[in-house]
Design goal:
Shape of chain A: globular
Strand content of chain A: 5-15%
Order of helices and strands of chain A: EEHEHHEHEHHEEEEHHHHHHHHH
Number of strands of chain A: 9
Number of domains of chain A: 2
Structural class of chain A: alpha/beta
Largest interface: A-B, 40 and 40 residues
CATH class of the largest domain in chain A: Mainly Alpha
Helix content of chain A: 40-55%
Strand order of the largest sheet of chain A: 2-9-6-5-3-4
Oligomer: homodimer
Number of helices of chain A: 15
Largest sheet of chain A: 6 strands, parallel
CATH architecture of the largest domain in chain A: Up-down Bundle
Amino acid sequence: MYDFEFHNPTRIIFGRGKEESIGPLLKDAGLAKVLLVYGSQSVKKSGLLDRVKDNLGRRGVSYVEFGGVVSNPVLSHTRKGVELAKAEKVDAVLAVGGGSVLDEAKAIAVGALAEGDIWQFFTGKEIRAALPIYTILTLAATGSEMNGNSVVTNEETRQKYNIASPLVYPKVSILNPQLTCTVPADYSTYGAVDAIAHVIEAYFTKKPGTRLQDRLVESIIKTVIASHNVILKEPDNYEARAEFMWTATLALNGLTPTGVGDCSFPNHMIEHSLSALYNIAHGAGLAIVMPAWMRWYSRQHPAQFERFADRIFGVQGAEAGIAALEKWFQEIGAPIRLQDAGIGADDIEMIADNAAGLAKLWGIDAVYSKGVIADVLRLAT
Amino acid sequence: MYDFEFHNPTRIIFGRGKEESIGPLLKDAGLAKVLLVYGSQSVKKSGLLDRVKDNLGRRGVSYVEFGGVVSNPVLSHTRKGVELAKAEKVDAVLAVGGGSVLDEAKAIAVGALAEGDIWQFFTGKEIRAALPIYTILTLAATGSEMNGNSVVTNEETRQKYNIASPLVYPKVSILNPQLTCTVPADYSTYGAVDAIAHVIEAYFTKKPGTRLQDRLVESIIKTVIASHNVILKEPDNYEARAEFMWTATLALNGLTPTGVGDCSFPNHMIEHSLSALYNIAHGAGLAIVMPAWMRWYSRQHPAQFERFADRIFGVQGAEAGIAALEKWFQEIGAPIRLQDAGIGADDIEMIADNAAGLAKLWGIDAVYSKGVIADVLRLAT
């Protein structure tokens, strides 16, 4: 095992109706005024937003509404949120929504206490302060509810970049699986793909050894597959939604890569270019990139892929495992080739060029040159 | 899944030589004077204590030494620590040792800020404050380094009771597996038994379902067995010590019982009487109690035991799984019957009487009457 530090201070409140605790929580924390960040229609239609506002009002916590966060949240909107948070002098940020809403809310929490433009933190500047962040999650997928990451897309430069800081771990995240029962099948599927992507990056790119971490990852993947298969048949199945929700949180809360040493996130790197350039759902992009990357990478490192095949799908050989995952992606309605998302092979050079920029920022450009990225993408045609 | 809250704020610093970070850590936290709690000889002989003191000294952090914590830490000594902490007005408690040292240090941290006797908190009084707790772990077993529990024995009343509070989670725990390489075989074995006991209590006593949590527990048990088998052959094997150390921490940091609903700790309850009455090692007592309890409980709830048999040992049927675990306990040198620890069958009534007191305090006396506890103990003869 490699040396590591682990510190995840987020408090999770999980279960039916738990969003009702938000007012008392904020009140007890001495917070008088929050920026209430959300997306567009779904939290209004479901009545959740009204219930949250009512709950805050009853506890004397005032709020400033900031809706309109889009899937793959964008920098221009984030900047407006920062301006509003500064102008209104809010004490905290409350995100009500899925991973996109949470990610944008985190960036706003940083920007609200910073001089200058928020994008500087996405390109390397150290984060020194952030408003306290609270979340009510409505879509299980990104793990943002229990980690210190945020991903935002700069529409001008077409860069989908991230920040990572201990300061943007939510103080409290409220996870009520009931709120995810209305998530449509396609977005549930993208969430399942995303959760798997979060654990397999380190699982495949780390050094051999660390059996405990391997087992934790396998536990997560098997549970994602089992629970998502139920969700597609029975969207209202609370048990399956709950199981999936907590599993997706654990998939990216820092636990599974503890002690595994250096590892990289090439699938996320390449996918970020797909969603930055084509605005497709992150999980959809990952379903396209993953089988391709796995085929490319397994040629050099077959052992862990053989283990994956055996442990997850009970089949023998690296290719059989990859094919089984790809087949499952197809069965659950995820795209698995670029053309499934309407992306032509002619765009590969341009996508690779975009991804190479992120590879450089993440320090993995020695392995992931533009040429290598294009090779991977050609396996997705 | 049942509703739950999860919040584990302890920061883990894991790896070779990491105890060297203790001085800077305390200094950065603004702590000027700590109570340095330890056991008896081993941390002196190994030179660890001198290194820690030197490290504190160089950073200008002063300390008051409080050694002499015994295995199964006792109330009389804890009270002395509380007196010393109050008299010396320390800012924090630094525990250097195994689970016993950490547990006593936690109790002292509570007592130092409380009026009246520390034992009142072990018998139900709510904990309202505690000094910040820092730990350097030298023996992997109890999980105390990343949880809010502490167990202390009242020698007068022969009660081994516990406190549980969010206030006694260590702020930082330093885990250097190298420090555990000198732990003798018997205590390494007791640690392995203890770690398994921590996860199987909920695994067997919870309601069916919660597949993720089942898999996490199975991952932990399999890793404990695999790593401990290496440790017994190669005590200096860093990888095995590291794997075991982190696994033992995760075995009781609150993760595995998330969402499983009501569960109980009957093995710990009964064992606490054995170590309170005979001062045997906690892990040794658990190795005696567990197979007996499992045989008793599996008669009423066979399904999860069949799963355990299959998943952990690849054998079929509840009894085969229990027998396999018992055989492994024997192979690694743990006692498996009362007489192996020199305890006669004539004592069973007396032990059951003691354990029944704890059953009442823990609210499980409806199931665990004195008669039932005696029945379980008779299966350990």
